[in-house]
Recover the amino acids of this structure.
């Protein structure tokens, strides 16, 4: 049956449901489920009618798009349509929405509520498909809805009870199983093939009218509109400087790691809506160096691995609590067989596009920061991965990472990341934006020189001591690798404005054995999630204990860290130790009161930081890397990553999370040499190493 015919039939049936036909098929009798005294069939009926009306609204927008309504109607209508598509999950409405697992559980019972809440989340992914005119992706979700609805109708007509939960789970399970292969191939095509150009059409179109922001199907707020306005009316030379810093950082990333960029043909651009004026110039820059952009949307459905982190382009985030509530939706169906299905789908897709994968250069990210923080709540009604499923996810991530590296070789690819604030950061937005441009374009030659003095001192050491002050309980001993030839070798990379913009750090992969102590930060944001009094205990370079004070319940605190910092692993190694040198960024953050809003990208430059997970050289340890002084950085491995040589899957953890101690919580960073003499680099938040005095100028307010 043709997809258009399937769409027509499904739509007609769903329209009947939205008009209330189901009421005649499901009686209003009460049923006893989920430990509640009673839930009436009427409550299930109301859910299905609500979902049917939502689907109908998406389909009506699809008709509107096909009729070229986006370009014909007034902007007020575009804004109204956009709002109505996302209205239900906005914070002010979320406590009445079936997308909220607490609401679904209260109305439909915990177990049925979880499944039907998941279903609503999956139906919401129809929105971007409607705007991209991907009819089949809409149809399979409409058919999933109808199959679950039909199961309720049949069972309730016969037994006056809802269908068995396992019956409904089976429907979802086979939906995921049946369509994973197609979704996986589509996702890889969007990553590797420039002709998948839905977003590029927007970027290369008319950017003089912000109505184009509504053409994506992403949620649009004043944040995106004001971002567009600020960038569009910036002086051309300023906008060019932003784009040049971004694309040149990408090119230099290949250069400093001795990788041949001429072998690459594509680069993946990731950004947030509103930055198109800059991205348009970046596309032109990339094409001048022989790279065509691939630009794909962040995932929004279970088939593509929806989660908290948005990888790709995206608009405003309607409700972070909604994302948090649905981050583990795959727990509904995840098992060993589905992992095998996903892996096989990836193998087939990579093999099909192996030539395109070989010339893929890697991602170039434009991150944003400054959004209002969200107080996320862990809800017992949400779906959560079991311990067995967590282990499966760890194994899957490891296997998927290894597979990717076979086709997109780590030793041949690179990346770059740059970040800018959004208007939501506050009344000083324009001043902060200008300050960030300054931070992103600091004189890297000057920093390179001062950082080399720090590296020369660190290379005299056996280990480094890092201690906190003013309530910070950090006390860590970081072991360094042994240098066999100090004239030709170094432990630390001199990081300037290449892959990690802005300038400002020296970093290493520590030796794990002997690395021990406590890491503590009073408040830090990691991947847009707040951690209060985060504390990690290390022994022989491995996390042995952890906690925070986000919740009153200690079990919740530990779960929060295990899920989101350890990424479901029981432990992780210390993959990186670095000293941030960007005091200009630190002072700017203090000046405008935005310390809690800085992204990791900038925050990690504002003090020493520690990363748990893989090393900085993950999947590229065998590539020789040199500092500007010609010395080879030999600290690229640790006792885990070296296992790759035996094809041991435990070599990689496929995660890397940076935790920064700000200067004003930093009591000491010192080097202990092999003869046990101590050389101070930082004391009480100030650089005391000769030759680094200029790093204190911003701290003294002389900028």
């Amino acid at each position: 049956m043709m997809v258009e015919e399937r769409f027509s039939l499904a739509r007609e049936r769903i329209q009947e449901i939205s008009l209330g036909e189901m009421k005649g098929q499901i009686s209003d009798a009460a049923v006893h489920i989920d430990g509640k005294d009673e839930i009436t069939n009427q409550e299930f009926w109301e859910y299905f009618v609500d979902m049917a009306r939502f689907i109908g609204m998406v389909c009506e927008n699809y008709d509107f798009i096909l009729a070229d309504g986006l370009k014909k109607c007034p902007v007020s209508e575009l804004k109204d349509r956009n709002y109505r598509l996302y209205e239900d999950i906005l914070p002010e409405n979320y406590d009445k929405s079936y997308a909220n697992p607490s609401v679904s559980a209260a109305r439909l019972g915990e177990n049925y509520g979880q499944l039907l809440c998941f279903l609503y989340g999956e139906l919401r992914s129809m929105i971007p498909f409607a705007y991209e005119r991907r009819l089949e992706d809409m149809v399979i979700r409409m058919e999933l809805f109808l199959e679950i609805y039909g199961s309720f109708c049949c069972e309730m007509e016969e037994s006056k009870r809802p269908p068995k939960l396992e019956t409904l789970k089976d429907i979802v399970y086979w939906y995921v199983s049946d369509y994973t292969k197609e979704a996986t191939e589509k996702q890889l095509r969007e990553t590797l093939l420039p002709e998948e150009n839905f977003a590029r059409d927007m970027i290369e179109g008319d950017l003089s009218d912000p109505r184009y922001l509504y053409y994506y199907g992403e949620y649009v707020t004043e944040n995106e509109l004001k971002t567009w306005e600020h960038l569009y009316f910036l002086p051309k030379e300023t906008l060019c400087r932003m784009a040049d810093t971004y694309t040149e950082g990408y090119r230099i990333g290949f250069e400093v790691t001795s990788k041949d960029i001429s072998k690459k043909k594509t680069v993946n651009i990731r950004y947030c809506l509103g930055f198109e004026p800059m991205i348009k110039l970046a596309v032109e820059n990339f094409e001048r160096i022989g790279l065509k952009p691939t630009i794909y949307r962040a995932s929004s459905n279970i088939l593509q691995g929806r989660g908290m982190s948005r990888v790709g382009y995206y608009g405003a985030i309607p409700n972070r609590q909604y994302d948090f509530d649905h981050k583990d939706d795959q727990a509904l169906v995840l098992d060993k067989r589905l992992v095998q299905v996903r892996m096989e789908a990836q193998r087939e897709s990579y093999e099909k596009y192996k030539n395109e994968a070989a010339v893929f250069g890697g991602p170039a990210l434009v991150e944003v920061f400054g959004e209002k923080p969200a107080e996320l709540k862990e809800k017992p009604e949400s779906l959560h991965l079991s311990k067995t499923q967590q282990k499966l996810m760890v194994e899957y991530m490891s296997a998927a990472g290894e597979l990717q590296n076979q086709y997109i070789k780590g030793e041949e690819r690179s990346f770059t990341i740059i970040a800018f604030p959004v208007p939501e950061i506050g009344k000083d937005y324009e001043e902060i934006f200008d300050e960030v441009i300054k931070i992103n374009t600091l004189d890297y030659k000057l920093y390179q020189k001062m950082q080399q003095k720090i590296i020369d001192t660190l290379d005299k050491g056996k280990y480094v001591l890092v201690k906190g002050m003013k309530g910070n309980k950090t006390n860590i001993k970081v072991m360094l690798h042994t240098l066999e030839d100090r004239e030709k070798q170094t432990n630390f990379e001199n990081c300037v404005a290449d892959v990690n913009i802005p300038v400002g750090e020296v970093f290493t992969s520590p030796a794990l054995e002997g690395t021990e102590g406590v890491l503590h930060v009073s408040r830090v944001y990691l991947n847009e999630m707040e951690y209060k009094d985060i504390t990690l205990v290390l022994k022989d370079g491995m996390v042995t204990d952890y906690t925070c004070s986000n919740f009153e319940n200690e079990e919740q605190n530990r779960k929060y860290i295990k899920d989101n910092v350890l990424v479901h692993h029981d432990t992780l190694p210390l993959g990186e130790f670095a000293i941030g040198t960007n005091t200009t960024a630190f002072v700017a953050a203090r000046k405008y009161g935005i310390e809690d809003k800085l992204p990791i990208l900038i925050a990690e430059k504002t003090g020493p930081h520690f990363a748990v997970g893989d090393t900085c050289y993950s999947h590229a340890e065998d590539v020789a890397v040199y500092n500007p002084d010609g010395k080879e950085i030999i600290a690229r491995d640790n006792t885990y990553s070296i296992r790759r040589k035996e094809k041991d899957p435990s070599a990689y953890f496929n995660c890397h999370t940076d935790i920064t101690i700000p200067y004003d919580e930093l009591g000491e960073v010192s080097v202990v040499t092999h003869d046990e003499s101590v050389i101070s680099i930082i004391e009480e938040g100030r650089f005391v190493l000769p030759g680094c005095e200029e790093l204190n100028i911003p701290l003294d307010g002389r900028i």
